[in-house]
Amino acid sequence: MKVYVYHETNDNEAFGEMLTKVFKDCEKAEAFLRERVEKALGETWDECRSIVEDWDGTFQYDIVAYPDGDGWNFFTFDEKEVIE
Questions:
Q1: Per-residue CA distances from 51 to 2, 6, 42, 44, 66 (Å)
Q2: 3 near 83, Cβ under 8 Å?
Q3: Is 54 exposed, middle or buried (CB count within 10 Å of its CB: 0-12, 13-18, 19+)?
Q4: What digits encode the pLDDT tens for the residues 2-12?
Q5: Domain boundary assignment for the chain
Q6: Which residue in 1, 13, 60, 75 is a FRET match for 43, CA 20 to 30 A apart?
Q7: DSSP state of 20
Q8: pLDDT tens digit string along 26-54?
Q9: Which of 35, 26, 25, 38 is nearest to 62 (CA)?
């Protein structure tokens, strides 16, 4: 069985500040990432793409990363195999 592990961090904050969520469905993980990025930047997904690219960040369906002051914000998810 596969799951999708979402992580949200800012590398300027303590590691304990990481938000982690686990999804059974890739589409739900992707939708959650989009929702969180839109909320963080206060814009639509397409506008977020323009902002992040203007800041020389990374903007893909499974990772969005952009500078924020002295650190970087990361929104990402990975496919993982569940070990039983």
A1: 32, 22, 11, 10, 9
A2: no
A3: exposed
A4: 999 999 998 88
A5: 2-81
A6: 13
A7: E
A8: 999 999 999 999 999 999 999 999 999 99
A9: 26
